[in-house]
Task: inverse folding
């Protein structure tokens, strides 16, 4: 796939980027999510400094990512255990 040069606006600053064409949509969605989070923090707290708002947003998204990662590990472990039990049953039958 072809690389694209794009510009994204995060917290009022423009960031030029070179991305793969298939990544562009995901990046633009991420930018929207970051800007929404910043606006939410701006409205709900008396914080106006963009650096603080970006830090709070980064912490929020990093925490979400870690929770999902832990959940995935737990679910994967459960699936592996079920597959091992099924494999054991099949071996007993054969």
Result:
């Amino acid at each position: 796939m072809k690389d694209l040069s794009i510009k994204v606006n995060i917290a009022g600053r423009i960031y030029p980027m070179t991305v793969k064409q298939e990544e562009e949509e995901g990046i633009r969605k991420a930018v929207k999510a970051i800007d929404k989070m910043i606006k939410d923090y701006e409205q709900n707290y008396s914080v106006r400094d963009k650096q603080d708002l970006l830090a709070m947003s980064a912490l929020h998204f990093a925490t979400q990512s870690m929770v999902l990662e832990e959940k995935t590990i737990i679910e994967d472990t459960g699936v592996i255990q079920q597959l091992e039990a099924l494999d054991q049953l099949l071996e007993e039958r054969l």
Observations:
- Residues 63 and 69 are 10 Å apart (CA to CA).
- DSSP finds two helices and two strands in the chain.
- Strands lie at 3-10, 13-20.
- Residues 3-93 form one domain.
